[in-house]
Request: fold
Amino acid sequence: MPSDSIAPTEEQSAPLTGRSRLVRLGGVGVVILCVVGGFLYLGGWLSPNALTPGRFVDEFERMGGIHSGFRRNHAKGVCVRGFFDSNGQGARLSKAVVFRPGRVPVIGRFSLGGGDPHVTDDLSTVRGLGLQFSLPDGEEWRTAMVDLPVFPFKDPRAFYDNLLASQPNPNTGKPDPEKMAAFAASHPETVQALAIIKSHAPSSGFDNAAYYSLNAFRFVRADGASTYVRWTLVPVQPYGAGTGASQDKNFLFDELIASIHQHPLQWRLLMTVAQPGDPTDNATILWPEGREQVDVGMLTLDSVESEETSPARDINFDPLVLPAGMAPSNDPLLSARSAIYSQSFTRRAGETKEPSEITPSEVRK
Reply:
């Protein structure tokens, strides 16, 4: 899901009077204020009862349990390596080095949603793909994508309230229907997003699934002009629908490992370009069909390894780790994701690492 904290500069560390604080804030752009406000909100500094990254992670732990050394969400995973070949077409959208013609190394991690690293694979479980692009100038681009075309929740509060509503009843082991109905009634945007998600049948595996950025990002060109985009990794491997038949516990990971051992896996990276009026702050809404899509290159993943040996296990796939030429949009989920990932990373970094469900022997199959 790194830079887990930002060291203050000498100027930032110096005490400020109330008047000078107002002067400084007055000079900050609206977008920056929105991002800072998101961190304050999630940091719990605006109210003692405010939503915080710690409270989010507490809920993930209540849902999935605490498993030493594992991510609090997307706990079950396997790591991969490969490279990205840019065709140069992305340079007209962003000055980021990654979009210049050429190849950069990539490491990543496929995962299943949820906090249990030993959960049985299921086609209906959200699949994730986290990637780190290492650029020749020393910069990094990190992205955490899922196989959903939209996100069910428009902001951190809706996401958190859903976690509360979906807590299993101790007597039934299932969420309370009344709480879930009440949440749906107060969040029609979630109902609409779930309808879109259900209309996209899950593919048969990790290798033939598309992965989406969900959130919008602002791309900046060399001349300073900017545009908003969302991106999609579109598989080269042919689509196959999941059968829903009974499978082995780790069938999704077993099939991924077998596939990548047979041949490299590839995805085309497509940038969807927003038009004026397209929402950039709400990941529950699809942009209209017909928006320009720019094919910026090919992702190739050609090796797989267990978390025990891969550096990807300890990478925080923070979506705000961006190279020059890429910036966050005004979507409040971005600062929330960054803060929550950091909290999860901090907790697991201080724990003993338990063996992964996907063991080295299984990866060598």
Summary: Residues 1-48 have pLDDT under 50 and may be disordered. DSSP finds ten helices and ten strands in the chain. The CA atoms of residues 165 and 181 lie 9 Å apart.
